[in-house]
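A reminder before we start the practical. When you read a complex entry, don't treat the lines as separate problems. The point of joint prediction is that each chain is placed relative to the others, so the output describes one connected object in space. Small molecules and nucleic acid strands, if listed, are placed in the same frame. In the example below there are two entries. Take a minute to note the order of the lines before looking further.
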Amino acid sequence: MKLAFVGLGNMGLPMAKNLVKVYDTVYGLNRSKGKEELFAQAGGKVGLSLPELAQTADVIMTCLPLPEDVHNVYFADDGILANGHPGLVAIDFSTVSPELSQNIYAAASEKNIDFLDAPISGGPPGAEAGTLSIMVGGKEEIFAKVKPVLEVMGKNIYYVGPSGSGSAVKLINQLMVGIHTQAVSEALVLAKALGLPFDKVFDILNNSFAQSRIFERHYTQFIAKDHYEPGFALELLHKDTNLVQELAEKKNLNLPVGQQVNELLREAKSSGYAKEDMSSMYKFIQEKNNRS
Amino acid sequence: MKLAFVGLGNMGLPMAKNLVKVYDTVYGLNRSKGKEELFAQAGGKVGLSLPELAQTADVIMTCLPLPEDVHNVYFADDGILANGHPGLVAIDFSTVSPELSQNIYAAASEKNIDFLDAPISGGPPGAEAGTLSIMVGGKEEIFAKVKPVLEVMGKNIYYVGPSGSGSAVKLINQLMVGIHTQAVSEALVLAKALGLPFDKVFDILNNSFAQSRIFERHYTQFIAKDHYEPGFALELLHKDTNLVQELAEKKNLNLPVGQQVNELLREAKSSGYAKEDMSSMYKFIQEKNNRS
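Here is the predicted structure of the whole assembly.
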């Protein structure tokens, strides 16, 4: 079986490297060639273009930061849909709107290409350990066919339902991640103002009803170390909470706190926190309070 | 050792019953006498008034729903401070402002009564199982003295720092509980609008970065069963988020999402959800969207 992986970023590179450990023929493709070199050093194959990969792979996977990237890699003239052979299975791990997933699915179907939306949760540590959560939308028989490939990269692998439903659940996940990030930020800003010992506060709250996986991630990996190299960049969380708001509007829903968090992330993004880990929201809320 | 427990409610009754299993002399006192009967049936002693308990107990504990109740039980003429003997240890498990805790502490000190603020987290199931988190403020040597008593009721028992710091950490916990409750509500309202299967969505998110103890509590114990008998009444969560806002204002802090959640809880409270479990916020957000 010939596998292709497009997008060797923070998530894609460790995922593709895990595939190399199990499958003989795994091709990688990335815009910046440094990542391709790292992939080749880990035993991955490189050197084929996107049209060549779409023409020859059995399964082509994409993991890209922005919806526009996903749109291009599928819909461009040198993209997957224009060049893919009938019977190709395409799997997108990116976080995009259910609508984009469904549009790719529909266009792929016309070419007899099978498409799954399969967004992931777990961050770079989960990608490296092969313990990602993967939430899949599309045809169930195609899911069953590629499940062994997904199992190399993830631990909790779910078939959700029709095309777009993987993306939908991922956006709900991101809505909660965004709100939990703000909960952590406001809690610690208050703790700081009260002069409470941070490690003890974390320990108590993590054993109480304040517990969340995001609290543990943000505190132990970033805030406690005062180290905010991503991780998951704040601008990417904002991209996701923005997709949530667009989805909510389309459904005529008002999600008031989701909306406020999206707005606060937008502010933080344009205040110098775009490229820092999302946990730097704590620093932004702190700074906002110091200013006022 | 003679113990007294004032306030045999949802939390107090199971806590006091656990004390009865270990200590010979545990007196209970409650406004409504039905709870006292339940306590007596479990082997507890009843029949002494608050002044009598304050005059004769070694340790007197209070667990009351509202700050005004706590204020009265300590400061009234027939209350603990006016009647307590020198050397009495008083422990308050209620959720109140750090300021009230410190005021009681100061007034108690003048009477040579030792006072600890010791709010709890874990809900009625934690109270019954004796696995509460207890976060304690006050003198460390008094904490050490009564720790064996606390260990009968809790599993994670923390000395935080000076008087009021137990209450401070508890309010931070409640800030996070309030925000997490809203996160669950908005996430499930969106999932419903998208027609996604709830059990599967919960299972996926609970294994992803959306995980929180509140999500698990709200979903499995209440929302999945469509059953909202408390538990922890929504009006009590609102009381707590309100205390958080008062504390933030006193510190000149703006906690924007905490403030919005407090406002939404106020709305839900006056829309018929006051006495339902706090997880009924999901129903309120749903209803608010259906109305608009």
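Discuss with your neighbour: Chain B has a mean pLDDT of 97. What might explain this?
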